[in-house]
């Protein structure tokens, strides 16, 4: 089987599985056990980055919107 055929088969399989994987939800306590200080660490990093580049806050909001708020209804 050629690499193109394998790529097409891969895309078809992934496309068939997408509807079954679209029920994922964000969990605010995901890192509770592995990194309990994650919120304060992220807050401090964002604060420091925003001091050096004020445009970064807008970029992070846009990134969060595109990654987290878009929901697909099938």
Keywords:
Peroxidase_pln; Haem_peroxidase; heme binding; peroxidase
Structure description:
- By secondary structure, this protein is mostly helical.
- It has a domain at 25-74.
- The chain is 59% helix and 0% strand.
- 0% of the residues are buried.
- The mean pLDDT is 75.
- Ca(2+) binds at residues 67, 70.
- This is peroxidase.
- Its cofactor is heme b; Ca(2+).
Summary, kept brief:
With 74 residues, the protein is mainly alpha-helical. Helix content is 59%, strand content 0%. The chain has a domain at 25-74.
Secondary-structure blueprint of this entry?
Blueprint: H1 3-17, H2 38-52, H3 56-69
Low-confidence stretches: none
Counted by DSSP, the helix tally is 3
What's the mean pLDDT score? 75
Portion in strands: under 5%
* Category by helix and strand content: mainly alpha
Percentage of residues in helical conformation: 55-70%
Family: Belongs to the peroxidase family.
Active site: 66 (proton acceptor)
Catalytic activity: 2 a phenolic donor + H2O2 = 2 a phenolic radical donor + 2 H2O
EC number: 1.11.1.7
